[in-house]
Amino acid sequence: MKYPEVLEFDALLPQLDAFDAIIDVRSEAEYALDHIPGAINCPVLNDEERIRVGTLYKQVGAFDAKKVGAPIVARNIARHIETLFADKPRDWRALVYCWRGGNRSGAMVHVLARVGWPVAQLDGGYKAYRAHVSAALADPPALDLRVVCGTTGSGKSRLLETLDGIGAQVLDLEKLAAHRGSVLGHLPNELQPSQKMFESLVWDKLRRFDPAKPVFVESESKKVGNLRVPDAVMARMRASPCIAVKLSRPNRVRLLMEDYEHFCADPSTLNAQLDRLVQLHGRAQIDAWHALANDGAMAELVDQLLVQHYDPAYLRSIDRNFVRYAQAEALELDDIAPEDFLQAARHLHR
To answer: Which class does domain 5-135 fall in?
Structure first.
């Protein structure tokens, strides 16, 4: 075999997980926007260098840009080899990609292949990968989805986490989106990924599932925070069998107090989020909820939010959006201890 190999994405997909490393040589900003899940970022031109060389390319010409860029690329590749790859054995196999044209990835694979590593280059780069993801999400695999439904605080996310822990197939869209899916769902100190990165993560989960086994997913709305669930995935979810999780309201309040502990510690953050509900509930009601938060009456506040906001919204939407909810399998939880969720998960994953 002559290296570097140049492979189209559809051809390498069956062996994608067999590579010892997937190396994205684009700049930090390009990588942050989206990348193949599991890829590491080894820029051959960082953000600042890419702007400098790109500007020279446009204003002066390709030859002058390459004269400036080549030594920068060479130094960066040398640093990556010295700091990241020097201990890799002779049979270490990496897949390398850049944006599209192959200049940046071509430089990296040339050097790696000259060292003696069996390296591969993605033909068409990130653009080819992105085209595959878009097409795959437009026609997702025919999976046996089981939609976990339930009012806010009924423990759907904990149930999915427990199912995942005992080996069930789980598509946790809130985890992938870094958001709990409601107006108060922003996770502290954690930014949501870009829309493209979210779609990459969804694609990566879907491609790994065994279609002969059920896949558990929560009854999300079309958006999880600022991110949109791919339309075809949402359509499959809404047409799938449902599981209706039941938990008493006092236990739902306890669970939400645990899950949203950060709001208890900082009522000002909670109040800022509650302000987004003014159009629905009016200024007087929001001010009353602010007062409860400021007084530390969190249990009363959570109970009122369930009764006046979350439960009515859920009841309005669930039958309309999930057409098989009327035939849902009922799953009642007695309490919110780990043992309760484990028992429920084992009942479903049998």
So the answer is: alpha beta
